[in-house]
Structures are given as C-alpha cells and as structure tokens.
User: Fold this.
Amino acid sequence: MFLSNDVQGNTEMLERHIVQPADAEHPTILSTEDLHVYYGKKEAISEGDLRFASNQITALIGPSGSGKSTFLRSLNRMNDRIATVTGRIMYRGVDINQPSIDVYEMRRRVGMVFQRPNPFAKSIYDNIAFALRLRGTTDKHELDEIVETSLKQAALWNQVKDDLNKSALALSGGQAQRLCIARAIAVKPDILLLDEPASALDPVSTSQLEDTLLELKQNYSIIIVTHNMQQAGRISEYTAFFNQGRVLEYDTTSHIFTNPQVQITSDYVSGNFG
Amino acid sequence: MMNPKTQNKVAIGTLYGVAGLVVLILLALLGYILVSGLPQLSWHFLTAPAKAFLKGGGVGVQLYNSFYLLILAMLISFPIALGAAIYLYEYAKDNWVTTTIRTAIEILSSLPSVVVGLFGFLFFVVKLRLGFSILSGAFALTFFNLPLLTRSIEDSLRTIDTTQREGGLALGLSRWEAVTRVILPAAVPSILTGVILSAGRVFGEAAALIYTAGQSAPALDFTDWNPFNISSPLNPMRPAETLAVHIWKINSEGIMPDAKAISSGSSAVLVLAILLFNFAARYLGKRLYKRLTSA
Assistant:
C-alpha cells in the first residue's frame, strides 16, 4: 500500500512527492501528524508529516536551515522551552507531544546523539552507568554487564575495556561519539535520533560509525540527520528531503538518489545547490 | 603607516611592557609587605592576644576571628549564591525580571564596602539588635560577597557547554538532575576558583566590619567550646576584631610602642594566609574534580 500525495508542479517535475514507508516487516514506530514548529512567530517547520519504519535507518537531508535538525529535535521534545511544537507525534500509538506525557521517561525510549561528541566529565564507565543508577539500577553486576554490552554494540569495548575508570574526556572524537552512542543505548531506547553524528569526525571514524549504525538497526530504529549525501546513500533505507521547513520528498533512499521526482531534490542530490 | 610586521612587534612589545609593569608593581608590594613583616612573625605573635598599651602583643585572637568570620560568611553566602546562580542561568527566562536582577547584582557588586558596613550597622547591629558581633559581621560580609559570588558561579555554569546539558536531558534526566549530576560536577574547579577569590576579598575586608563585627577583640578561652559562653571562640554574639580591622585600627589609633611592627607583621600574616588559602583550595579543587570526574 503506497500512500502518495503528489502535488502537480510544473510540467515535468512534481512540487512535492511523499511516499510513506509501507513494509509489513518494518511497521511504523513513529510518525508525525500535522506537525508545525515555531521559533517565536517564525514557522520553522510547516510541512513535516513522516512515518518512520522500525529497525530501519531513515536519513533526513537538506540544505542548512531547512529545518531537518529542528524536526529531529522535536521528535524527543528537546525543543521544549526553545520552540513551540504543535501537532501530534505518535509513538506506538501514543501522542508524545502532549503535556501529560512524562517527557523524561519518553526520552529514555527515544534517545539522541548530538552533532558534537558530548561525553560527560566523568569516567567512561560512569558516562554509561550514571543515568542507570539515577533510575534505580544499582546492582554492580548488572551495571557492569550493561556497560559492556553497550560498549560492544557501539564498537568501542575493545579499545576501552582496560580504561573504564579513565576520564571520557581523553577519548578521541570518534571514540567519544561512539561512547555517546553507547550511553544512549544503555538506557534501552526503541529509537535513536542522531543529529549529524559524523560531522565532527574524520573519514575513518565516520566509516566506523556507519558500520556501527548498520549493526544497531537490528535492535533500534534510527533516524539520522546528515549533510553527507554519500552517507545517507550508504546506510539508510529511507530518505526525506527538507527544504525551507517543508519535507519536499520522502521515499526509499534509492529512489531519492536515482530517480528524484522533485526538481529541488534532484538539484540537491546531484550537488547543484545546498 | 607601519607595515603589519613592525606594527605587530610594537604591539607585542607594548603588551610585554605593560604586563611586566604589573608584575613589577605586584612583586614590589608583596616584597615590601613580606620583608618588613616576616621578621616580626613568631609563634608568640601568631597566638598571643593583642596588648593595648604594652609592647609584645600578638594577633592570635584577630587571626582566629578572621577565619571564623570567613567561614561563617561563606556558609551563609555560598548556598544563596549557588541557588541564585543556578536559577539565573539554568531556569530563568531572559526577560525584564532577570534583567532587573542582573542589574541589581551588578550595582550591588560595585557598592563601596564602607556603605555595606554602615548599612550592616544600622540594620543588623541597631535594628535587629545583634550588636557588634560576629553574626552582624557575617551578615554584612554576605551582602558584600553575594553579588560577586553569584556572578562568578553563574559564569562558571556558563563555561559548561550546552551540549553537556542536552546530553543529560537526552538520557531522560530531569533539568534538576542534569544540573546537579552533570553540570555542577564539571563546573566544580571553576566555581571553587570563584569561591577562593571572593574568600580572599572577604578575608581582607575591613571597612564592612568596623561597624558590624566591631573593633574590639575580647580575650578568648580556647578550651571553652560552648558557643553560649561569652569567652568561647564559637560564640557568634561576641564582638570580633579581625586581622584586617586590626591593621586599620593600630595604624589609625594604635598607642602600643611597637604599633608599626605589629602592623607590618599583621599585614604579612594576612597576605600569607590568603596565599595559603589559595593553594590549599586549589589543591582541594583538583582532588575534588578528579573524584567527581575521574579525570
């Protein structure tokens, strides 16, 4: 079943082309409905209704200022107090964009990794364990196990297993970013939001990070904002193209990159603007 | 027009000159105080009570009073300043209320300490009937100290990147947890530096204390630790001349024959105490930071 709401633009190209994922094996885990985001009076997102498939990687691409980061940050309500977000964000049948939702509990289900690695000024072990301790996991064995599994999932265990009590601030950029991923998955989220996680990393670290994400999608649904179109092409199943606060095109990644239906998307992915 | 290279050389030369001048002035001042003061120092000088008319008095009581007042003033002002700074930086929205608070803090921080002292005299000593007492002095010092301490703690919080805060929130921490578990531990060294600097100011403050903690130092019985006894060192209701006030007093009206020597010695003690305090606190700060962050 394809949900398409194409709007006829000029003669050859469409103005908007939205194909929501429809894959029975990967049902929708998160969707936005009638989502609008305002900074003060300025509308930052005016059309951004997307469905995200579970256990897949969805890439959000678009030029700077197109609203993709704003959109991503709205999904786990990191924009609370910064922007006004109206509309519904449905997560497993519940609208999480309403005041009665326990936003702190929700963020443990919808984790986030940021553009710049932001390890806490704590030991590697405590970076992962301390959020768990705050929520009542105090058993040493259990914590040890979670720390080890998370670091293994983030492909960092082998490099740091002997230095768990050293400061996380001494890690390299790539390692620090993988620690942040380990920290995020340690609280056992369903969804991982990543806001340009590789933009501060060198090519080798970036490639390792991409491998890690491909591994992680077996257990997590991943939504990633990226400036790097090759990256979107390499790792994602679905891609949404943002421009000026609107999603102009949403489809499988291969369609977006090989056969875009919207002129601006085509220009963007072929490097003519952006 | 000079070419950029010469211009750069001239600029660097000037900056070196200015920096050198500052260092020179500081060293000369410190050197003078230490050279004229150190010879006066002895165990007797540091522990004996002062004498009003005779040679050979010490500054034991004044030294103790200075530390006691410092600790009391810090105990009162630090929690308030910390709370205010956390509120201002982490919670308050940027609107006219917080702008007003910030302006008020700025104005208060440039208030001459003698004005703070007179206010303390009228309000704590007279109105609240606390008399010339350690408590009045501690309250006056709190007023004197709060604005700068609040500012410096707020600045310390500002040095912690917002990505740290967001990292905490993204893990499902509440704002309060993010502040207390992520931001504050990371800001400890910077906060401590602010506390040390303000402690130095408080320790050397005289004008705010002359009319609040008073200018007399009744003899203390260091074996009596019941805070309700008048001669107990812990009694917060007794008048308490501090070292800085003592220096001011013997220079203006000291009639003991060795007033000059005592003044020099006291100044050296004051400077050394502040230095010692600085080093100790810095060391503690590093240790604390290591424990909190395993850096």
User: Anything to note?
Assistant: The longest helix of chain B spans residues 259-293. Chain B has eleven helices and no strands. The radius of gyration of chain B is 23 Å.
